[in-house]
Specification:
The complex is a heterodimer of chains A (111) and B (119). Chain A has 111 residues and is mainly β. Chain A contains no helices and eleven strands. Helix content of chain A is 0%, strand content 59%. In chain A, the strands form two sheets. In chain A, strands 2, 4, 5, 9, 10 and 11 form a six-stranded mixed beta sheet that branches. A five-stranded antiparallel beta sheet of chain A has the order 1-3-8-7-6, with no helix packed on it. Chain A is globular and about 45 Å long. The N and C termini of chain A lie far apart (32 Å). Chain B is an all-beta fold and 119 residues long. Chain B is 0% helix and 48% strand. In chain B, strands 2, 4, 5, 6, 9, 10 and 11 form a seven-stranded mixed beta sheet that branches. A four-stranded antiparallel beta sheet of chain B has the order 1-3-8-7, with no helix packed on it. In chain B, a hairpin with a 2-residue loop joins β5 and β6. The mean pLDDT of chain B is 91. Classes of the chains: A mainly beta (111), B mainly beta (119). Chains A and B meet through β4, β5, β9 and β10 of A and β4, β5, β9 and β10 of B.
């Protein structure tokens, strides 16, 4: 990947369980975003966290950002089968218009 | 609400041919991004435009070029196609906040993608 690594690469859980995905990056950023992608489809924005923020919530999503460790995590609570998708973090690089995507986590939620 | 429109959705070309992909951003969005996503890969940043001027360049091959026109639509031109160019090509648009564009935080809205197959 050009910038970020995500782990795990694949995650399989039961419906109702929580799913946690992690993203690490290398350079200075002004914000970090999480996107979801269903197989072969476009990416859909989930949540944005700025570099001066530590935690954000949106519905069943919770995102944390630790700029000292250059890492972020996405927590999906009470997962549903419909949450099955690939999840990518994208970092907005400071001083540029670039958004660089991490390698993604393939989440499978079993009904 | 209008979304990002990409065309064509599917394209099949032979090696060494050329291909042109088009992107129509959301009205009033001032920034366009192009990404390439190979099978099972993460989206790779190719190039971006802000107010019709190239703003940043990523891993775009020299065989590729792009531009944004006066009506804000963008085209990605790919020449001397290779088998490895087979991928999903996504366009995204966003609205940069006022002030310094390079310090803004803006959400990217993606199109459905154009799937290029090179035979």
């Amino acid at each position: 990947s050009q910038q970020g690594e995500e782990d795990p690469q694949a995650l399989s859980i039961q419906e109702g369980e929580n799913a946690t995905m992690n993203c690490s990056y290398k350079t200075s950023i002004n914000n970090l975003q999480w996107y979801r992608q269903n197989s072969g489809r476009g990416l859909v924005h989930l949540i944005l966290i700025r570099s001066n923020e530590r935690e954000k919530h949106s519905g069943r999503l919770r995102v944390t950002l630790d700029t000292s460790k250059k890492s972020s995590s996405l927590l999906i609570t009470a997962s549903r089968a419909a949450d099955t998708a690939s999840y990518f973090c994208a970092t907005g690089l400071s001083g540029t218009y670039k958004y660089i995507f991490g390698t993604g986590t393939r989440l499978k939620v079993l009904a | 609400a209008a979304g990002v429109i990409q065309s064509p959705r599917h394209l099949i070309k032979e090696k060494r041919e050329t291909a042109t992909l088009k992107c129509y951003p959301i009205p009033r969005h001032d920034t366009v991004y192009w990404y390439q996503q190979g099978p099972g890969q993460d989206p790779q940043f190719l190039i971006s435009f802000y107010e019709k001027m190239q703003s940043d360049k990523g891993s775009i091959p020299d065989r590729f070029s792009a531009q944004q026109f006066s009506d804000y639509h963008s085209e990605l031109n790919m020449s001397s196609l290779e088998l490895g160019d087979s991928a999903l090509y996504f366009c995204a648009s966003s609205f940069m906040r006022q002030g310094s564009p390079r310090s803004g935080a803006n959400v990217l809205t993606f199109g459905a993608g154009s799937r290029l197959t090179v035979l």
